[in-house]
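ESCALATION

Customer reports they have been waiting on this structure for their group meeting. Please prioritize. Original submission:
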Amino acid sequence: MVKHWPQITAICSASTILKISILFSKLHYIKIRAFFKYLFFGFIATKGISQNVIIKGKAHVQYAGKTIQLSSLTDYITNTKQKEDIDTIQSDGYFELHYQTDVTRPVFFNINNVVAKMYVQPDFVYGITIPELEKDFDYKNDAELPIDIGIIGNDSTELNVLTFDFQKQFNKLFDGQDGKFLSRPMIFQRADTLKKRSDKRYANIKNGYFLNYVEYSIASVNASVSRGENFLINTYIINKPIQYDHYEYMQFFNACFKGYLNTYASMQKGQTLYNIINVKGDYNLLSDFLKEDKFLKSDTLRELVILKNLWDFYFNSEFVPEAVSQVTSQLHQATKIKQHKKIAISMLAYFNKMQTGSVAPGFSARTKEGTMGTLNSFKGRWVYLNFFSTSNVESLREMPKIDALRKKFGDKVVFVSICLDDSLKSYINYLKANPKFNWTIWYNYDKSITKTAKDNYFVTGTEAYFFINNLGYLAQSPALAPSKGIEYKLNYIFKPTRRNTKTGIR
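Update from on-call: job pushed to the front of the queue and completed.
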């Protein structure tokens, strides 16, 4: 079982390095086990005939009667999950899922809160096994539980088997047992060593997706410890094709160009991003502004970088959501690149659904008492909704400020906090450690919930804010955090009416 990796600082421990690539993939890799003694399917990881992709599976009998869902990602900028197929696991554990794709890509399985991932190629039939849940692990905390699936077959060149082999080589190099700290130069050196070893080990492999999987997994190691903008972009981006459908490439791309526009704008005189987006809302002006950047001479690359940053801007309180949506819409109309149109459509679908003035999505969540709470229970009240995690220091700093707001506006606004921790125990421990935080603080996950509050509000990280009016509409989406000035908004809405104290007038 692999957990999300912490952000890497200038100096890293050897045990931390093991976790680097997941920082950018954000999803758990699959441990592949080859079963050579028997095959319960007559064709495994072979070319399909009538169906594009068929996944035949056998789950442990403890899953019998449960629904298994297959999902994919609509694009790798918004990372929006899309349901592709579902099946009910039979009493003997068998199930079958179908999926249509013309490119190699990752897909995801969900059985309640149990999740797994694998890669599929067009026109293949796969056999997989889903193992029994580990008895020594606490599976009752309702968090997402990533598991290792098995791939049936003994083809050492199958994509999933290859990715697992690479992870083993990665772990051997970075998971030192001596507990020593690795400096940034040492990490760079080991990343280069991994590259050389991989080139030799996989010299006869012809699978293009896998070879790029290796290259951009190593790229993510370099990016995670900030090897340098010039090195990263020149080595992995410039003069290379943009791989819109390659998961690892796009995860590296997103990490590489996160905050790029802000950094570039801060070094320019005159025009500002604030003026271009918030005031003028002009895509052409934004594109022209970036043409002088040494890495963004290509119209295609510049446009994709703009899309990536617009997505991030929408969740940044310094930018006006409606203005970001307007610029995105202009880009959608102007672009001639079908992949960019697809990404822009996904962004606009989210923006329009979550725009200020739209209906606030309902949700259910687990209360500290273990019962179910719903947003609908606050019908007719103003609601300030925030998402936080005990692993997110910035979101924790806002909690005392929310408490101060509650004391000031608690008779007018309901304050609701949703904890996004993976562990129910950490949520409960946080409440115990902060008994004065006695407003509504719920836990996002519960085994009875198919779509969580985080899902319904499209929260992509572990911190977000929304303000809902008493009619059930989004008054601010995303809303300002307490430290960013939401109190000014509350003061404006709920400003006290002055009493007239003139004699004789009531």
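Sent to customer with the following note: Residues 184-201 form the longest helix (18 residues).
Escalation resolved.
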